[in-house]
């Protein structure tokens, strides 16, 4: 039985690392099933996060990324204190530590074999959070295409239903070792991108240079673009980008419908918003332009509820609502997160893939922490390591094996779970 299981799993890596077949990247106005959030437990931002979670859970599942059970318990205490019920809220235990999940989170694609993730590097070099797409894919049984030699922040990625992508010129300047042609071809091969339109980033104060602080597609023919008063920094950049967008034609050969939204205090953006089915959650700032922004969204999206959440607590860090959320667009992803709570789930492993000579961290479910046996098999089914554990839910193994594909098995209380591990 053990050998049979190993043989079945053996075929998975070839699917994961092959080029996807007929990939396409869904736009943000595609129906969402869930939203990922990775909070940093910073008390000054909790009011924003609590309102955001409450608004999201009426439309979709909220999936909260935490490091371990202790963080989950802490998060639950915050939710209880805010009178936020746990319905439509799930937790996933994945190494994490950076709230800006839009940039390092999973960019989803649809392929002939189902939903998959594309895993790029991000400009912030998010440390342990940078592996989130691949770790989530491993935990949820989805394919992950690792393109982390390329920097592509999720905040600088805006697409429509027809393979058109919009970004600032940081798409290329963040990757000086690669030609524009190489990057364009890579995005076509792995995400189905047919055309890429780039716009100037704002000035030196724009650390990240993301498109989502300048503009937002509301559908395949409608876009809102920020504006600021003449004489202020970045005024001319936004005017030039508006002019450039005005010269484009929509996928239907018609001019785009474009509305300008004035920034609050000439720097706080309203385009950094979360599209969530029939609801759009936009940042507001206790500013007179809040009502103007809400009114423009309501005019352009008459069948949507427009909700404003005060984002002054984080806007000084150059990001707001869009930056701290990531939509999931398919039932496969939500089903996968639900399956994580099954009683017979024994463990997860991180990081995966990992480099030989490094530590493999095994997170063992509390129900199985009393005792168990850990076994590691190579790709031929040969057992290369066996360890017993007692009274722990966090076990570390020093991995010093040749590169390749391995399978780690834990047996506890009469149950066995197997996970694939890739050693580079």
Task: Write up this protein.
25% of the residues lie in helices and 31% in strands. A hairpin with a 5-residue loop joins strand 19 (371-377) and strand 20 (383-390). It starts with a helix and ends with a strand. It has twelve helices and 23 strands. The chain has helices spanning 2-10, 12-17, 46-56, 69-81, 101-104, 132-140, 170-173, 180-191, 235-246, 289-300, 312-315, 331-339; strands at 34-37, 61-66, 89-93, 107-111, 114-121, 143-151, 158-159, 164-168, 195-199, 215-219, 222-227, 257-262, 274-276, 279-284, 305-310, 326-328, 347-350, 359-364, 371-377, 383-390, 394-398, 404-412, 415-423. A four-stranded mixed β-sheet has the order 3-2-1-16. The chain has a four-stranded antiparallel β-sheet with strand order 20-19-22-23, covered by helices on one side. The radius of gyration is 22 Å and the shape is globular. With 424 residues, the chain is of the alpha/beta class.
Question: Taking Cα atoms only, what radius of gyration do you get, to the nearest Å?
Answer: 22 Å
Name the overall outline: globular
Q: Pick out the low-confidence regions.
A: 1-17
Please give the order of strands in the largest beta sheet.
3-2-1-16
The total count of strands amounts to 23
Name the beta content range.
Answer: 25-35%
Helix/strand/pairing category: alpha/beta
Task: Report the sheet with the most strands, covering strand number, pairing sense and barrel closure.
Answer: 4 strands, mixed
Mean pLDDT rating: 88
Structure annotation, total helices: 12
């Amino acid at each position: 039985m053990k050998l049979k299981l190993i043989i079945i799993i053996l075929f998975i890596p070839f699917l994961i690392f092959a080029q996807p077949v007929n990939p396409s990247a869904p736009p943000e106005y595609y129906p969402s099933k869930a939203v990922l959030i990775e909070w940093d437990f910073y008390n000054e931002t909790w009011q924003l996060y609590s309102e955001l979670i409450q608004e999201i859970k009426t439309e979709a599942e909220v999936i909260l990324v935490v490091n371990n059970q202790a963080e989950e318990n802490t998060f639950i205490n915050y939710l209880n204190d805010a009178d936020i019920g746990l319905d439509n809220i799930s937790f996933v235990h994945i190494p994490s530590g950076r709230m800006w999940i839009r940039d390092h989170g999973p960019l989803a694609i649809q392929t002939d074999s189902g939903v998959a993730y594309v895993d790029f590097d991000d400009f912030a070099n998010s440390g342990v959070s940078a592996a989130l797409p691949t770790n989530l894919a491993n935990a949820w049984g989805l394919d992950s295409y690792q393109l982390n030699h390329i920097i592509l922040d999720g905040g600088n990625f805006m697409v429509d239903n027809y393979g058109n992508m919009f970004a600032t010129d940081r798409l290329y300047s963040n990757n000086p070792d690669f030609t524009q042609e190489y990057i364009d071809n890579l995005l076509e091969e792995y995400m189905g991108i047919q055309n890429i339109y780039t716009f100037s980033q704002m000035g030196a104060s724009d650390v990240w240079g993301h498109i989502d602080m300048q503009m937002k597609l509301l559908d395949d023919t409608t876009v809102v673009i920020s504006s600021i008063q003449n004489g202020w920094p970045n005024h001319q950049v936004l005017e030039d980008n508006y002019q450039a967008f005005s010269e484009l034609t929509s996928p239907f050969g018609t001019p785009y419908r474009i509305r300008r939204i004035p920034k609050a205090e000439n720097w706080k953006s309203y385009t950094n918003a979360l599209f969530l089915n029939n609801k759009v959650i936009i940042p507001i700032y206790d500013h007179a332009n809040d009502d103007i922004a809400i009114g423009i969204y309501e005019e352009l999206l008459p069948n949507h509820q427009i909700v404003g959440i005060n984002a002054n607590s984080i806007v000084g860090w150059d990001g707001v609502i869009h930056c701290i959320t990531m939509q999931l667009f398919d039932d496969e992803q939500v089903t996968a997160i639900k399956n994580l709570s099954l009683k017979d789930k024994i463990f997860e492993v991180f990081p995966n893939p990992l480099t030989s000579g490094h530590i493999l961290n095994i997170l063992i479910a509390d129900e199985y922490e009393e005792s168990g046996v850990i076994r590691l098999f190579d790709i031929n089914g040969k057992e290369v390591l066996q360890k017993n554990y007692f009274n722990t839910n966090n076990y570390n193994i020093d991995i010093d094996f040749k590169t390749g594909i391995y399978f780690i098995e834990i047996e506890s209380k009469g149950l066995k779970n197997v996970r694939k591990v890739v050693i580079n």
